[in-house]
Amino acid sequence: MTTPVQKIKVLVADDHTIVRRGLVSLLSLADGIEVVGEAENGREAIEKALLLAPHVILLDINMPVLNGLEATHQIRQKAPEVKVLIVSAHDNDEYVLQVVRSGANGYLLKNTSADDLFAAIRAVHAGRAFYSPSVSRILANFQSNQASPVGDAAPGNEAAAETRLTGREREVLQLVAEGQTHQQIAMALSISKRTVDTHCNNIMSKLDIHDNAGLTTYAIKNGIVILPK
Length: 229
Prior knowledge:
single chain, 51% helix, alpha/beta, 11 helices, 2 domains, Rossmann fold, globular, Arc Repressor Mutant, subunit A
């Protein structure tokens, strides 16, 4: 008796409905791949990763509430068996380095072919990394220059300071940098305004930054808010 082959369970996370539904439709054509859920922001992606236990998550970088990089970081902590494949329209050096540092298993450009998308999902599910050709060239350039994209942050620098923020503090920081008020943040995260105030005070204390303009600059510089390029 032939044992049925288990399908690769995929969660698709993208805040653009047309893009998300397009990916779902495309994946329905692939043998051995099954879409088990969709998410429209990073917070929902984390929740559904824990609830649905997908094998692979297709994750956009630019998403509200929680961006794809922070979502990846938290998914890798809370569900390390889940593979994360970043899907983005951007292939500049900064994005590539941020994705590698986040712990993602691959980086695929949105203009890729359907066959490459299916191959990428199968590759990361099997435990291999998968990068679009232009992304691979960027990583190769860093390696040839003996620069490590995943090097540890030196004590006292901004990257080291950012690692002291909790996951919830990074969520709050992203929303502050996106211009949301404390009341709007409270509603988005289903917490009280007083709790948001406390998180903001803790963030400012940890980063030694004491105004929203400074927090916004910091968030952009450190990839907590991703600006389209």
